[in-house]
């Protein structure tokens, strides 16, 4: 709560916070739109594969030509990690391989990094975070995106002395969505393909939100940051409105729908028959927590909290998140307080590639949100045991065997190129995990 005061001191000292942004897509553009109204925070370098597109993005969000002229535009993300030019890096490409490369470059340079790129964070975040800690570099989630907001709520609950029973977010979900492909995605958003194309909307990216992959990635990130457990066989997406959070999101032993207390889960804004859930949490995040004693439970009632029938379980939720419009909180916190807004601590959850249909040997996987696979959240131990192919490596690789619809694709079912840095880093992380738990 001191960021603006600390930033004011930087302004007085003539040392604005300089950020480097890698990726000027939707998330990056939302961040850029806030720069004119945050004195003392400048984006000094913007890296994008198409620098002219990045300049156009700046104009579209309201930058004047003077601000654009004062900004360096480059094509290489590594140029945005230079500690002589920036105080913090924002990785917003959404590409897991690129994200890992940029994170390693920033860590090597000693530059704090904010990872909007949850795909990279889940693929190799435990290793990247460990490398950052070893170098004394801040490695942070992106405030405004749901994982960081959930981590904040979990931290609040624990710092207040409550047991965290469940944490997660809301989304629009039906079981049939797991098999939706980019060709059929727009009907679920109420758009025609022509309308979506005119708006510049990427069908594969939007399909990753619909088919459950993005939810799996975000909950893996939360579990890894907060030490929470993940479901053994994927998220169940129970229909649930905000008033029912304490009833539904607790262990079965206490009358809820989770396998046990202390888990991540995503709630659906749709009943299984397609009807809307009353007071849904489609755009928001939540934490369910438990009173440690009778006195705290009585206080829940006295101060009007909605609880379960026992009065011991309650929930705190935030109905909306503003993604890139709030990203500056992470950027400033990383520089001014030298602290992350949530960060991977351990490898608890992984996201495995699962066949959307019967797949045949010789087919090429097309990754997150595509036609062939979706991402499923599973425990890291299971992922190691079954040698699951992570969704972050399931793009552009050819199958060497058939995979039945609904089956987890294993790493042995494809040929991974060990010369690719993302593959090497992932295997390094897996090797460290096996050594730590004694797995051969």
Provide a compact summary of the structure.
This protein is of the alpha/beta class.
By CATH, the topology of the largest domain is Rossmann fold
Mean pLDDT comes to: 96
Domains, number:
3
Give the name of the CATH architecture of the largest domain: 3-Layer(aba) Sandwich
Q: N-to-C terminal Cα separation, in Å?
A: 47 Å
Q: Which range best describes the helical content: under 10%, 10-25%, 25-40%, 40-55%, 55-70% or over 70%?
A: 25-40%
Low-confidence stretches: none
CATH superfamily of the largest domain: NAD(P)-binding Rossmann-like Domain
Q: Assign the CATH class of the largest domain.
A: Alpha Beta
**In this structure, how is the largest beta sheet organized?**
6 strands, parallel
What is the number of E strands?
Answer: 14
Q: What's the gyration radius in Å? A: 22 Å
Q: Output the helix-strand order.
A: HEHEHHEEHEHEHEHHHHEEHEHEEEHEH
* Total helical segments: 15
- Estimated share of beta-strand residues: 15-25%
Instruction: Label the overall shape.
Output: globular
By secondary-structure content and strand pairing, the structural class works out as: alpha/beta
Question: How are the strands of the biggest sheet laid out side by side?
Answer: 3-2-1-4-5-6
